[in-house]
Amino acid sequence: MAIQNVLITGATSGIGLALFEQYTNQGENVIACGRDPKKMALLQSRSFQTCLFDITEPEQVATAAQEIKALDILILNAGDCRYIDDAKHFNGELFSSIISTNLSSLGSLLQYFLPKVKKGGQVVFVSSSATILPFPRSEAYGASKAGIDYLANSLRLDLVEHDIDVTLVHPGFVSTPLTDKNTFAMPFILSSEQAASRMISGIEKRKKYLHFPKRLTLIMRLLSFLPSSLWQSFITRKVITSKGNSSNSHTREDQA
């Protein structure tokens, strides 16, 4: 099988780093992307190529894309998760920041990197199982990921004529520096390595939709069919505790 050129945004931590490790071990040409110079330096010797840029800065994205010739797989993974702790006093600045990082940034990423994807290639969007059901405090994060879902599913239709497949990924809870800050229960949590392995397997099979762990995602889908009063009671009782202990600092982990 021919060696593939795989570009990964948010390759310096979490799922992105695990994807980098596993694709590199498979012998693929991995193009690692991130915004932290120190972390990128650690990957540089092992990468086929590296691109240092902030996904929220279109000019940086455009400059980085000039260095890329052709891609087989484009994995749009970088993102952020912060919560709205007081809905009555809605944090519009935080909301805008999350939408910008997780959703709006995809506009420039697609503008400059999608033309590099070869015929027969793939674009992979890392969304979240949080779009299956609404969660408390997730107004910003959930809205951004729901937007990714629609974007991926719509783009898939328009890329058929170009013979480019689109894979939408709905991970459940994955152990990363971001989720380490969570103060609520995270059932069936996976390691970043487990999540990356499942993603790579699904990407190889060119699946349109990946969701894992199925023990969690199928339960969530079943709950979504219940009367809203029942699943709302379940979610608010089981998922959210210790409201005041979440972190809404402006540090961003480069994964979704």
TrEMBL record:
<dbReference type="GO" id="GO:0016491">
    <property type="term" value="F:oxidoreductase activity"/>
</dbReference>
<dbReference type="InterPro" id="IPR002347">
    <property type="entry name" value="SDR_fam"/>
</dbReference>
<dbReference type="InterPro" id="IPR036291">
    <property type="entry name" value="NAD(P)-bd_dom_sf"/>
</dbReference>
<dbReference type="GO" id="GO:0016020">
    <property type="term" value="C:membrane"/>
</dbReference>
<keyword id="KW-0560">Oxidoreductase</keyword>
<protein>
    <submittedName>
        <fullName>Short-chain dehydrogenase/reductase SDR</fullName>
    </submittedName>
</protein>
<comment type="similarity">
    <text>Belongs to the short-chain dehydrogenases/reductases (SDR) family.</text>
</comment>
<dbReference type="InterPro" id="IPR020904">
    <property type="entry name" value="Sc_DH/Rdtase_CS"/>
</dbReference>
<dbReference type="Pfam" id="PF00106">
    <property type="entry name" value="adh_short"/>
</dbReference>
